[in-house]
Design a protein that fits this description.
The complex is a heterodimer of chains A (about 250) and B (about 375).
Chain A: E1 6-17, E2 20-31, E3 35-39, H1 46-54, E4 61-66, E5 70-71, H2 77-83, E6 85-88, H3 100-107, H4 114-119, H5 124-136, H6 152-165, E7 170-174, H7 182-196, E8 200-204, H8 208-214, E9 217-222, E10 225-230, H9 232-237, H10 239-246
Parallel strand pairs in A: 3-8, 3-9, 6-7, 7-8
Antiparallel strand pairs in A: 1-2, 1-4, 4-5, 9-10
Helix pairs in contact in A: 3-6, 5-6
Chain B: H1 5-27, H2 38-64, H3 72-90, H4 103-107, H5 123-147, H6 152-171, E1 183-184, E2 188-189, E3 192-193, H7 197-223, H8 225-235, H9 237-242, H10 247-273, E4 275-276, H11 283-296, H12 302-321, H13 326-340, H14 344-352, H15 362-371
Antiparallel strand pairs in B: 1-4, 2-3
Helix pairs in contact in B: 1-2, 1-7, 2-7, 2-10, 2-11, 2-12, 3-5, 3-10, 5-10, 7-8, 7-10, 11-12, 11-14
Chain lengths: ~250, ~375
């Protein structure tokens, strides 16, 4: 697959919870190597969209295709993760009792079977990969700390590092800079751009300064479907977007 | 596998205590002040079997977050397998002198041994069944429950229902397991008299060896990468799925292993207490096993052994001195531990031990490499 090919394709995806349509015929195309920012008010369906892509929620109707022809709606979470779709949650979710190192070790791409992990030993190759991720995420000094003891920002980075360790083709990142300091936010933007050099990324974010710093195509969601799409300047001039945001 | 100091001390203490008790029972005269009476030997052996059950509970509860309120069922099933072997060893020495049928079957007017008693005259077969029956039951139960993502309180309630259902089933005479009287009046195990002091001492030492083996196995499992994933599943199950792991298969493996461990505990328990009956399936027994683990310290393995021994020692003492107070004491102990010692007795050990060294920074690590 090369740059420009379609990596992820959502067509007419609808999800309803007790009659409420969280996603309403949502259609979206993401290209190989692209980074996309998703914005939208609360309840616009951003998290539900991620749930659908990662197999947590099954859509009532619509198609979700990954790569050439993999139908994601038929697969469950571990199967989709193994295909190469990684997800970072809104709230940093790391394995708190484990050290930073062990968190990355568990996330490293490899055999996920119980028979393997029962007897698995850390290989030099695994060590090398963990060390390189520690460097990328600026966590080298923290590698022996319990991840529960990390600062909020460090946990967010660790989780991004775990995503990298999975070596996914596509990263779904849900509000990575919520609760971060300005300096951390800036570093995170640099980190995501760095990651985007080799992988496709979808970022859900409320922080407009951050979205601007990413400098990528923006999709605005509203009531479960796409309201507007284009550069940040384009969508913020779009009358439909202004209406939704200003509540006219 | 590297063994930490606490684990090492525990192994030495369990083996040492069992050997000393057995030797003092065997090598000293009954009148001697150093003599350990046989009832103490049987009691100690019983505690060690309970410790195996506690270890099994800690493995699933402490490391996989599966709060089983029915684990004594696996223990009792292992016990029944051994009981069936011991019944077959009685032979013509039963009250009715029937060479093939245990007394309770003769009493019920049965003419032939039911098919499922086949093979239980062989010790090896009985031991195999003591592991296989709990494993299969746990396998089927776990496969259904974990695949359907049943967790938390719901799972606990189903495990409780499981042991209660077995309790009711084993109470029935036509099940062919001795009804509410169960099985007792055992004579021989592998040709040795089960009542003899020497057999009891040997069983105590064997129990200690098996307990240590189970402990090492459990340690190996929780220290492996598998164990780290298990802890991850315990704390944030959904996250492990998005990393590509299947929590249900991890839970199933540890659940079945735990059931086997409990089954072995039950198999060793029966010859030492001399009886197995349906009351071993009583829901209260499983809950008590959870209390042992909570008292000792959940998720520490050592704590499970410690808790089982401490609580059962307390039970023996109380039921001798103040029998009507025991249940209140047990309840009070559970509340006290929950409120003040959330990490159990092991929490005390940990906090009094010197603090762990500060995490090394690269500079310090480099300095260590140079000097070391």
């Amino acid at each position: 697959m090369s740059e420009g090919d379609t990596l992820l394709y959502l067509d007419g995806v609808t999800v309803s919870f007790d009659g409420f349509k969280a996603l309403n015929a949502l259609s979206l195309t993401l290209e190989e190597g692209e980074m996309r920012a998703m914005v939208g008010p609360n309840g616009a369906g951003k998290t539900t969209m991620m749930d659908v892509i990662t197999g947590k929620t099954r859509p009532d109707s619509g198609k979700v295709v990954f790569g050439k022809d993999t139908d994601l709606t038929r697969l469950d979470e571990p199967a989709i993760a193994s295909l190469g779709i990684g997800r970072k949650f809104q709230k940093p979710t790391v394995f708190e009792p484990h050290t930073v190192w062990d968190n990355l070790l568990l996330a490293l791409a490899g055999d996920r079977g119980a028979r393997f992990t029962l007897f698995a030993r850390e290989t030099p190759e695994e060590k090398r990969r963990i060390e390189s991720i520690l460097e990328t995420t600026r966590l080298t000094d923290q590698r022996k700390r319990r991840s529960a003891d990390l600062s909020h920002g460090q946990k967010q980075w660790l989780e991004i590092g775990m995503l990298l360790a999975q070596e996914p083709k596509l990263l779904l990142v849900d509000e990575p800079v919520a609760g971060m300091t300005d300096a951390e936010t800036e570093q995170t933007a640099v980190l995501l751009r760095e990651i985007n050099k080799t992988r496709s990324v979808v970022v859900v974010e409320h922080d407009m300064a951050f979205v601007r710093a990413l400098g990528v195509k923006v999709t605005v969601l509203h009531e479960g479907s796409v309201l507007s799409e284009g550069s940040l300047d384009f969508v913020s001039e779009d009358p439909k977007v202004i209406e939704v945001y200003l509540g006219r | 596998m590297k063994l930490d100091r606490t684990s090492f001390i525990t192994l030495i203490a369990v083996m040492g205590a069992a050997l000393v008790l057995a030797l003092l029972n065997q090598m000293t005269a009954a009148a001697s002040a150093a003599h350990v009476p046989t009832y103490v030997i049987a009691l100690a052996g019983k505690y060690l079997c309970f410790a195996m059950l506690a270890l099994a509970v800690d493995l699933v509860w402490g490391f996989a977050g599966i709060l089983s309120l029915g684990h004594a069922a696996f223990f009792a099933l292992g016990g029944y397998a051994m009981g069936m072997y011991l019944m077959r060893q009685i032979g013509t020495r039963g009250v009715y002198g029937n060479p093939n049928l245990p007394d309770f079957m003769v009493f019920l007017g049965w003419k032939a041994l039911p098919w499922y008693w086949t093979g239980f005259e062989w010790f090896g077969f009985a031991i195999l069944m003591a592991m296989l029956v709990p494993a299969v039951l746990a396998g089927v139960f776990g496969w259904l429950a974990f695949r359907s993502r049943v967790t938390g309180v719901y799972l606990s309630i189903i495990t409780q229902a499981l042991t209660y259902a077995l309790l009711l089933a084993f109470f029935r005479n036509d099940m062919g397991f001795g009804g509410n009287n169960g099985m007792t009046d055992f004579k021989d195990i592998l040709g040795f008299n089960v009542q003899a002091d020497s057999t009891r001492s040997a069983l105590l030492v064997i129990s200690a060896v098996v307990l240590c083996g189970q402990f090492l196995l459990a340690r190996f499992v929780v220290d492996s990468r598998f164990g780290k994933i298990l802890i991850a599943v315990r704390d944030t199950e959904s996250r492990t799925r998005f990393l590509g792991y299947r929590p249900e298969s991890y839970k199933l493996v540890v659940w079945v292993l735990s059931a086997i461990m409990a089954g072995i505990g039950g198999a060793l328990y029966v010859p030492q207490v001399g009886i197995i009956n349906p009351s071993e399936f009583a829901p209260g027994n499983s809950i008590e096993a959870v209390i042992w683990v909570a008292v000792g310290g959940r998720g520490t393995l050592v704590g499970a052994i410690l808790g089982a021994i401490i609580v059962n020692f307390g039970k023996t003492w109380f039921t001798g001195a103040l029998p009507e107070v025991w249940l209140y004491a047990l309840g009070a102990m559970f509340i006290f531990v929950t409120l003040f010692l959330p990490r159990g007795v092991m929490g005390l050990v940990r906090t009094s031990a010197p603090k762990e060294p500060e995490p090394e920074t690269p500079a310090v690590a480099a300095a260590h490499e140079v000097t070391g």
